[in-house]
Design goal:
This protein is of the alpha/beta class.
C-alpha cells in the first residue's frame, strides 16, 4: 500500500467580490538526488482526487528515479475544503500555482489528466520560467465551453444559468451538481485559437480513441497550436478516458522519460 503524508496550506480565493479561505491538501516528497532536477507535479481530473492510479504510478516513477514528487487535491475536491458545486478552474489554477511558487520553489514538469491536462497548459502559459515540460492524458482544454456549454440547446443553457447548477451522473454511479460558475469562470481561461502558441516547453499528449468524455481530437488540436518544436501526440486505440490499463500506465512512464529535462 502506498503511504500518503498529507500537508495543508490555506489559500484565499476571490469569489463573487470577496475572498474565501480554503484549506488545500497536498503531498510533497523531495528526493536527495533530485535537487538539481525539476520536480514533477501531478494534477488530477474533475471530480477526482490525488489518490488515483495514474498519480500513484507517477509517484512510484519519481521515487525510482530520484525526482521530487508533488500533488494536491484542488479546492472542492478530495480532502481539501469546499463543495464540488462551487468549483472553478480558478480554484485549481491558483492552488497549483501556490504549490509551485511557495512550496516547491523550483522548476517543474506538470503532468495532468483531463481537467488537469488543461491546467498544465494554463500553468505553462502563466509560469513559462517554471514549467519545463508537460505530460497530459486525455487533455480537456476548454472543456467547460466546448464540451459542457456549446452542445446544449438554448433552453438547456438558460435552465443551467437560472438554477445555478446542472445535475450530471458521475462515473462512480452517484449524481454531481456542476455549478454554473464553472462555465462563467472557464471563459476567462480559454486557450484554443488564441494562447496556446505562447507555450514552448516540451509537451507529450496521450489520448485514447475510446474516450467517451473528451474526444481524442482535442489533444491533436492542442498539439497543432502549441508554439514549441518538441511536441508529441500518442493516440491509443481502445483506451478509455480513465487511461488506467497496464499498457496505458507504461505509456505514461515512457512519456515522462522522453522529456529532455532530466540531464
Amino acid at each position: 500500500m502506498t503511504e500518503h503524508t498529507a500537508n495543508t496550506f490555506t489559500l484565499a480565493i476571490s469569489e463573487k467580490g470577496s475572498k474565501k479561505d480554503y484549506k488545500v491538501v497536498y503531498e510533497s516528497i523531495p528526493q536527495t538526488q533530485g535537487r538539481s532536477k525539476p520536480a514533477v507535479l501531478f494534477l488530477h481530473g474533475l471530480h477526482s482526487d490525488r489518490l488515483g492510479g495514474k498519480i500513484e504510478t507517477g509517484k512510484a516513477w519519481c521515487a525510482k528515479n530520484g525526482i521530487d514528487f508533488a500533488t494536491l487535491d484542488y479546492p472542492c475536491h478530495g480532502d481539501s475544503d469546499g463543495e464540488f458545486i462551487d468549483f472553478t478552474i480558478t480554484h485549481a489554477l491558483e492552488a497549483a500555482t501556490h504549490l509551485i511558487e511557495n512550496i516547491l520553489k523550483k522548476p517543474v514538469v506538470v503532468v495532468g489528466s483531463s481537467t488537469g491536462g488543461w491546467l498544465t497548459l494554463l500553468l505553462a502559459k502563466a509560469l513559462p520560467n517554471k514549467v519545463k515540460g508537460i505530460v497530459s492524458v486525455a487533455n480537456a482544454c476548454d472543456f467547460t465551453e466546448e464540451l459542457y456549454w456549446k452542445p446544449l440547446s438554448e433552453a438547456e443553457q438558460k435552465d443551467w444559468e437560472a438554477k445555478g447548477y446542472k445535475a450530471e451522473p458521475s462515473w462512480d454511479g452517484s449524481e454531481w451538481h456542476i455549478g454554473f460558475e464553472l462555465i462563467r469562470d472557464g471563459r476567462t481561461h480559454l486557450l484554443m485559437d488564441k494562447h496556446l502558441d505562447k507555450i514552448k516547453c516540451p509537451v507529450r499528449l496521450l489520448h485514447g480513441t475510446a474516450d467517451d468524455a473528451v474526444p481524442w481530437q482535442t489533444s491533436v488540436q492542442v498539439a497543432e497550436q502549441l508554439g514549441g518544436d518538441d511536441v508529441e501526440v500518442r493516440i491509443f486505440p481502445h483506451a478509455n478516458h480513465r487511461f488506467s490499463e497496464p499498457q496505458n500506465l507504461d505509456a505514461l512512464r515512457a512519456a515522462l522519460e522522453t522529456l529532455p529535462v532530466w540531464e
